[in-house]
TrEMBL record:
Record's compositionally biased regions (Polar residues): 74-86
Keyword entries, A-Z: Cell membrane, Membrane, Transmembrane, Transmembrane helix
Domain of life from the UniProt record: Eukaryota
Protein name: VANG1 protein
Compositional bias per record (Basic residues), positions renumbered to this chain: 19-35
Record organism: Glareola pratincola
TM regions (residue ranges): 111-133, 153-172, 184-204, 224-244
InterPro entries: VANGL
Location in the cell: Cell membrane
Record-stated family: Belongs to the Vang family.
A GO CC term assigned to this protein in UniProt: plasma membrane
Gene coding for it: Vangl1
Length: 525
């Protein structure tokens, strides 16, 4: 990629051939040639060089491959493709079918639960009104006059129903954050309790009032008021079970990412395993740094290089089984070649040196670019309003001056797949709009941020799998371990109960603070 990047198109679309890429092209074409091409059933392989605009910034995904490449490897990259642009295997088809079946099942379960809850809630709110209106409709002439007492009860029922409606909306009608594998036990118990409660009230109302056509209308209205009062108490019970019970911390969970060992600690209350898993995932996206598989390739390449250097010879021939001697030879060869710790030390030292060097260049380039923006703003104030630059144009104007340094730094720290050019321009224009400093702009790139900081399409895992030996609806207990798996890694969660702490009190009498100054007659010369 050229150092003189003036516009957005020159930054994203620049590529050229080199001698090395041409050689790789010829070797790749010979290696990938299909046997069926001899009879003309397939066309020849073609070589294309392209840099799609939707790719991550400063190179394609191959930038994570090997450490031995130089920093300008992206400038001489040749992509070898065939005539077919898309391919799919039987395993992919089976996985897609399974995902579709799972998504359909989850959607049906979610909408069924919402439908049942909505129907039951509608029944709850209409029942007191029906208790009051049915006698007026069926035997209005036989009812005893109620007067002011019933009117006051009507107002009481109306306001209580309004309070119950607002509380139900605040507690139950929320946007679902996730799909859990099992039902929420306390919520299901509350629904069953409400159904049995309303059913019993209807049963008593039908037997004692509808069948006998009770004429005491004041008693009927008070019966409806008692139903509303009981519903308010059930709503209070729901608040205690669903919200207040889990507030007091009772457990400490340690969450460890399986790939790089990054860990965090969280305090949780009385929760089921599946709800604790939801809390862990919410905190994971906020607290854990973004998962970067490119950082793991260095250790894997070192291990592969070390194992490739070991050679074992069977000196006794294929017919003899000298396992002890072979093991001794392997151990001796391993001891002779056990210099991997030195390689690791010098590789890390060299990597840190290069990171510091690229970081310094990036900081200087960004500070110079922001200084230019400040100078432009001072000059633009004297011009006509139509000639002033908006933040987007200003960002595009100064971006080429810092793009080269940012490109090399992101490649060295292996972050290029998380930052597209469009996202960097948006962040730059945001910083310019809010008059932020160069240090504030660089904060996103100098240190890996939390997972939520990056583009949703690059970090968000659509589905997590909860693996637990205990039932996911059971509560947390001391020593429970469960695992949250996604496509690339897993989160291992270890639960420990907060120990019981016993405090004792000791009283100190203020009069006991008495001191004596001891003076010595002899002094040092």
């Amino acid at each position: 990629m050229s150092a003189a990047m003036d516009t957005e198109s020159t930054y994203s679309g620049y590529s050229h051939y080199s001698g090395h890429s041409k050689k790789a092209h010829r070797q790749g074409r010979d290696r990938h040639k299909s046997p069926r091409s001899k009879d003309g059933s397939r066309s020849e392989k073609s070589v294309t060089i392209q840099t799609p605009p939707a790719e991550p910034l400063l190179g394609n995904d191959a930038s994570r491959a090997e450490e031995g490449q130089d920093d300008n490897w992206g400038e001489t990259t040749t992509a070898i493709t065939g005539t077919s642009e898309h391919s799919i295997s039987q395993e992919d088809i089976a996985r897609i079918s399974k995902d579709l079946e799972d998504s359909v099942g989850l959607d049906c379960k979610r909408y069924l639960g919402l439908t049942v809850a909505a129907v039951l809630g509608l029944l709850v709110f209409l029942t007191p009104i029906a208790f009051i209106l049915l006698p007026q409709i069926l035997w209005r002439d036989d009812l005893e006059p109620c007067g002011t007492v019933c009117e006051g009860l009507f107002i009481s029922v109306a306001f209580k129903l309004l309070i119950l409606l607002i509380g139900t909306w605040a507690l139950f009608f929320r946007q679902p954050k996730a799909d859990i594998p099992r039902v929420f036990v306390f919520r299901a118990l509350l629904l069953v309790l409400i159904f049995l409660f309303v059913f019993s009230y209807w049963l008593f109302y039908g037997v004692r009032i509808l069948d006998s056509k009770d004429t005491n209308y004041q008693g009927i209205v008070q019966y409806a008021v008692s139903l509303v009062d009981a519903l308010l108490f059930i709503h209070y019970l729901a608040i205690v079970l669903l919200e207040l019970r889990q507030l007091q911390p009772m457990f400490t969970v340690k969450v460890v990412r399986s790939t790089d060992g990054e860990s965090r600690y969280y305090s949780l209350g009385h929760l089921s395993i599946q709800r604790a898993a939801l809390v862990v995932l919410e905190n994971y996206y906020r607290d854990f740094t973004v998962y970067n598989p490119a950082l793991l390739t260095a250790s894997k390449s070192r291990a592969a290089k070390h194992m490739a250097g070991l050679k074992v010879y069977n000196v006794d021939g294929p017919g003899n089984n000298a396992s002890g001697q072979s093991r001794a030879m392997i151990a001796a060869a391993a001891r002779r070649r056990d210099s991997s710790h030195n390689e690791l030390y010098y590789e890390e030292a060299d990597h840190e040196r290069r990171v510091k060097k690229r970081r310094a260049r990036l900081v200087v380039a960004v500070e110079e670019a922001f200084t230019h923006i400040k100078r432009l703003q001072a000059e633009e104030q004297q011009k006509a309003p139509g000639e002033m630059m908006d933040p987007r144009e200003a960002a595009q104007a100064i971006f080429p001056s810092m793009a080269r340094a940012l490109q090399k730094y992101l490649r060295t720290t292996r972050q290029q797949q998380y930052h597209s050019m469009e996202s960097i321009l948006q962040h730059l224009s945001f910083c310019i709009t809010n008059n932020m400093t160069p240090k504030a702009f660089l904060e996103r790139y100098l240190n890996p941020g939390p997972t939520l900081q990056y583009d949703r399409d690059r970090w968000f895992s659509k589905q997590w799998t909860l693996v637990s030996e205990e039932a996911v609806t059971s509560g947390l207990q001391d020593g429970i371990v469960f695992v949250l798996k996604c496509l690339d890694f897993s989160l291992v969660v270890n639960v420990k109960k907060i120990p019981f702490i016993k405090l004792s009190e000791e009283f100190i009498d203020p009069k006991s603070h008495k001191f004596v100054l001891r003076l010595q007659s002899e002094t040092s010369v």
